[in-house]
Design goal:
The protein is an alpha/beta fold and 565 residues long. The protein has 13 helices and 26 strands.
Length: 565
């Protein structure tokens, strides 16, 4: 479709008319295979939220009662909540069973049950015995049959498949991996240790399509540094993680302090990409069929992970019918001046559906032999800050953080795979607080994403709006796709390296669609061109990027795909 254009003041070109066509569908209905996009939802923090909710049920209402309940917390308290009741039952008070979350994106996500699904303690998880007490409808004396019934039920609910957590360290043998294969388990969350990836080798022998995840953190985990300290993830830790990344399908950058998940995950993943992008996979793993995928995930911080081309691993849900005692709200990302994590379900849908367009990609050489270009990490470091109360995080007691002001930092801007650092200018009449800004170029060269993410300040969570400029290197492509996520004052996309140095705006139609919706629209009349620069105002980003909002109480940031062709 050819647009009619008119030149207006200051040389900016705006669309005058556009032909109205058939409905636009920019989000494919088809979903990448599990091995190509092993996105998953994990139950661990949902288990914790049910433990916290039970405090309300049992009358733990005063601050002193809530603190005593929190101090008595054990790992087993979370484990016991991994049950069929919590996973699959919708209660009359509005509580949603985990298996019923994210209807528009279930087929994009593997449903991972974390520690507690097994019959017994954490130490016996690798026996692969499904608890008949917690999951009675799937009980069978044959462990393959029991897990198989569970996997079939998860698939029937529309999920991509079932994943299971087990303790790490010593790998499971081929006989146990065969049980997972025969039961239909598609992902193994192998938690901790085994940095030489013996479990990957064994899995390839009998279940070559099983996605094996490894994870490792370090001595200060879930913080990025000791307190007091510089608040940064050490390069030595990134190098240690890179070693495991090279021999696994999926490397989890591990647990975070929930209030600091953005800054901590940016710092970990940016440094992991920086040290691993040009590393060579050991020959013993390169010869496996298929070779390790070298993907990375963010353990409950999906926005950052998606922004850097990783595998989202959300742990959120919602709190409908499951109120929390006030002192526990911060750990769930809720309460006054919070990010309201449990009110951001649409965010997960948008990120999951973006992976249909731009699947996550492994760090390093791609399947076609293309080398990954070095990431850029801003020299400007932004520090997120919080003054911790007892119940603000699970690590407050173990790390002696009560009453302590803690900072965790990360580069203000990060780009992956050869993009320039975006330009970020705050509006003259607004707050000077900068957002984090991340951008990625995906394999193939014509798909990009740009993401702005908020900050954790002493005053609480904020989402600053900046004027952001993204420089996109293009050649003779006839179609460009950009995923746009977050809050903006404006977004300008500058197309560089085109034939003759110019893109003729008259040859481009600008389409956009909320990734949570099924129908897009032509926004050519609402954008502005200046030479090869395309500007999307905040009003367009907000209107289109929230068009598929599922509930009035969902506070997810906009997320849209913009296509130029």
């Amino acid at each position: 479709m050819l647009l009619n254009l008119v030149v207006i003041a200051s040389g900016i070109i705006a669309s005058e008319t556009a032909t109205v066509g058939t409905p636009v569908h920019l989000v494919p209905d088809s979903v990448p295979a599990v091995g190509d996009a092993p996105l998953y939802w994990c139950s661990w923090l949902a288990q914790g939220r049910m433990w916290m909710h039970n405090a309300s049920v049992t009358g733990t209402v005063t601050p002193s009662q809530q603190e005593a309940y929190w101090r008595s917390r054990t790992h087993e308290d979370f484990m016991v909540q991994c049950s069929s009741t919590n996973a699959f039952t919708n209660s009359s008070d509005g509580r949603v069973g985990w298996g019923w979350l994210f209807p528009p994106a279930r087929k994009d996500l593997v449903f991972v049950l974390d520690n507690g699904w097994q019959d017994g303690a954490e130490s016996v998880s690798k026996s692969l015995e499904l608890s008949p007490t917690k999951f009675p409808q799937f009980a069978s004396p044959n462990k393959t049959v029991a897990i198989g019934k569970l996997a079939a039920h998860v698939k029937a609910l529309g999920w991509k498949g079932l994943g299971l957590w087990t303790a790490g360290e010593a790998p499971m043998g081929p006989d146990l991996i065969a049980i997972l294969r025969d039961a239909g388990v598609v992902l193994l969350k192998f938690d901790g240790g085994d940095t030489s990836c013996e479990q990957t080798k064994i899995a390839r022998q009998v279940a070559p399509q099983l996605v094996v995840e490894h994870g490792d953190c370090g001595g200060n985990c879930p913080l990025n540094s000791a307190v007091p300290g510089d608040g940064r993830w050490p390069m030595s830790a990134a190098l240690a993680q890179a070693k495991a990344l090279l021999c696994t399908d999926l490397f989890r950058t591990y647990d975070t302090v929930r209030l600091f998940s953005v800054s901590e995950v940016i710092d970990r993943q940016a440094k992991l990409i920086a040290v691993a992008h040009n590393m060579t996979m050991p020959a013993e793993f390169a010869s496996l069929d298929p070779p390790p995928r070298r993907l990375f995930g963010g353990s409950g911080e999906p926005v950052v992970t998606s922004a850097l081309g990783g595998v989202i691993q959300p742990m959120r849900g919602n709190l409908r019918g499951a109120t929390l005692p006030p002192l526990f709200e911060a750990y769930a990302g809720e309460g006054p001046n919070s990010r309201q994590r449990q009110h951001r379900e649409d965010e997960i849908v948008r990120l999951a559906r973006w992976a249909r367009i731009a699947p996550p990609f492994g760090i390093g050489p791609q399947r076609d032999g293309t080398l990954e270009e070095a990431p850029l990490l801003d020299s400007l470091v932004l520090m997120d800050t919080h003054n911790f109360s007892l119940c603000d995080d699970a690590c407050v007691i173990s790390h002696n953080l009560e009453g302590v002001i803690v900072e965790q930092g990360a580069p203000a801007r990060v780009t992956r795979n050869g993009l320039q650092l975006p330009g970020v200018v705050m509006p003259a009449n607004g707050d000077s607080t900068l957002p984090f800004v991340l951008a990625t170029r995906y394999p193939g060269g014509h798909t990009f994403s740009v993401t702005t993410i908020g900050r954790q300040l002493l005053s609480g969570w904020v989402e600053p709006r900046a004027n952001v400029t993204l420089w996109v290197p293009v050649s003779a492509e006839t179609q460009f796709v950009v995923g746009v996520f977050g809050q903006y004052a404006s977004l300008t996309i500058v197309f560089e390296g085109t034939s003759g140095g110019q893109i003729d705006p008259r040859s481009l139609t600008v389409l956009a669609q909320d990734l949570a919706s099924d129908v897009g629209q032509d926004i050519s009349l609402e954008v502005m061109w200046s030479g090869t620069s395309l500007t999307l105002p905040a009003s367009v980003i907000d209107r289109v990027g929230l068009a598929g909002r599922s509930r009035t109480d969902d506070v997810s940031a906009p997320g849209l795909v913009v296509m130029l062709k």
